[in-house]
Amino acid sequence: MSGYVGYLNSEEEEALEVFKQQIEDIKKPQWDDSYLLRWLRARDFDVRKAELMLRNDVVWRKQLSVDKILQDYRVAEVIEKYCPNGLFGEDKQGFPILYYYFDLDLKGLVRSASKADVLKSMVHTMERVYRCFQEQSKKHDKVIDALNVVFDLENLALKHITYKPGVELCVELVQMIEDHYPETLRTLNIVNAPKIFPIAYAIIKPFLTDHTKNKIRMYGNDWQQKLIQDIDMDQIPVFFGGQARGPDGDPKCSHAICYGGEIPQHYYLQCSKQAIDKTKMDMAVVNKRGNHMMEYFVQQPASLIRWEFITEENDIIFGVYMKKDGTPVEKLKMCDLINVLIPQRCNSHLVPEIGSFIAEQPGNYVVVFDNSYSWTKSKTLWYKVDVLLPSEGLTG
What we know:
396 residues, alpha+beta, five-stranded mixed beta sheet, 14 helices, 13 strands, 23% strand
């Protein structure tokens, strides 16, 4: 229990006090010691690294409007219906449980939703988890700040680990959770893992902290008996070997847990890519090891920068920046820019990438399509970018 409130040694207590002083300028009232210790544990009580991690998180949360995501963001229907997971029940100590039944159509998901929507839906899930922590803490009158995960990998197959866009998406999800929701995991209980699991784990393992790895439990055929050591039977769905049933006696408790499945093709967005009217878009070829930059002047605070783009073959990195000075756009280098929207590798060759960003201050903004990571392939890009005034953004 070292590293937690009530179990700190003298060095950890000192690190916590120094950490509080270092982040005083960004500290929020709700950041209690339990919350701050997450970041310190994630960086082995290296105050400098923990501070950098937390400051990056503050910027990230602002860029994605994370604090309002539960109120303002509607998860795409295809993700809601076919991405398997669900919060249900609690363990014997009051910590909530997230169930995953890995029947995930990765190829269908990549073709049906943008990477941004998938990542944002995971943020939505994690914010629900943190809201659950608050509810459980009040219910049990103690700090509840970690999550049990039951991960059933019965349906993990070779098709999942050989589909490159899907694997890249899973890696990004893991990285995002480790970077922005550190030390959230209490236990990860893996059950029904097939023989190819070591291959899948080898792909993900480099992106996990040692703290996370140490919380993983692999169970054999006796996994149901192992689960009930920590979780009461009435908190485990019948489908997972417990006694809990949903409405009308549902053994899967499907009202709370999504079980995934094959995504119907009518959700696929490929058709909308083909239907895009390119006559209303600009075209550019982004050379290998190169990028394509466009500059837009924002006159009023809270204006909306809106974009839509596709690539004919292969993905591309997209980001939004502000200029540091008056350097003409054709002479700009990445070091001349200040990032305001985290760059993201987009599967725009599979689905159209559509999004927007609220520019909080006037100035010269630069939209960047970055292909510097590709040594061999240029990218043909079709794009449309608009800047809308605040009043136009509400109706545009």
